[in-house]
Amino acid sequence: MSNEKMRHPREQKITMNQRLMQAYHQAPWRTQMQRIAVLLLILIAIGSIAGLYLSVSAQAATAAIQIRRYEATREALKQAHTNLESELALSNASENMARRAQELGYQPLDTQSVQYLLISEYPGRQPAMIAPPPEVPHPVRPLIRSSYTQSLWDWVLDNMARSGGQHDES
């Protein structure tokens, strides 16, 4: 028999381990490749996080600029509205209204020359119905039955009190 077959299984295991160790030591490029791969993964993770941060920051900056534009537009509209209200108040002033009425040919009213006409079929001004007439309030029914308003703890205590009372009576 050959010498290899006669070896003890433990010796074969040792030689196998020695061969693996020798093969591993003979290929240092493997450890270098593993280190490079880990480094690249770390760099990719850092780059992804930085890209995400930049994206969120850019969106926040864009939103802030948009908000400033909307606020400036709102302020300009407020000022234009205030100017228009001032112009309306000025044009509706009593002096301006009297002057415009005279320009259009209206005369001030003489209370002695006023004539009123009575119309028998005219019912007069009707009161405006702003709100519906009041109704008799309906009794309010609870939405939840009373049997469902008791907590579990209260239910247990009530049942214990009831069962305790029944045992005392007997």
Question: Which key terms come to mind for this protein?
Answer:
mainly alpha; 0% strand; 170 residues; flat; single chain
How does this structure look, described?
By secondary structure, this protein is an all-alpha fold. The chain has a domain at 9-97. It is built from four helices and no strands. The longest helix is centred in the middle third of the chain and has 63 residues, at 29-91. It is flat. The model has no long low-confidence stretch (mean pLDDT 83).
Short account of what is shown:
With 170 residues, the chain is an all-alpha fold.
Rg result: 49 Å
Structural category is mainly alpha
Shape: flat
Multimerization status? single chain
The percentage helix is 55-70%
Summarize the biggest pleated sheet.
none
N- to C-terminal distance: 98 Å
Q: Number of helical runs?
A: 4
Topology:
Elements: H1 9-26, H2 29-91, H3 94-103, H4 152-169
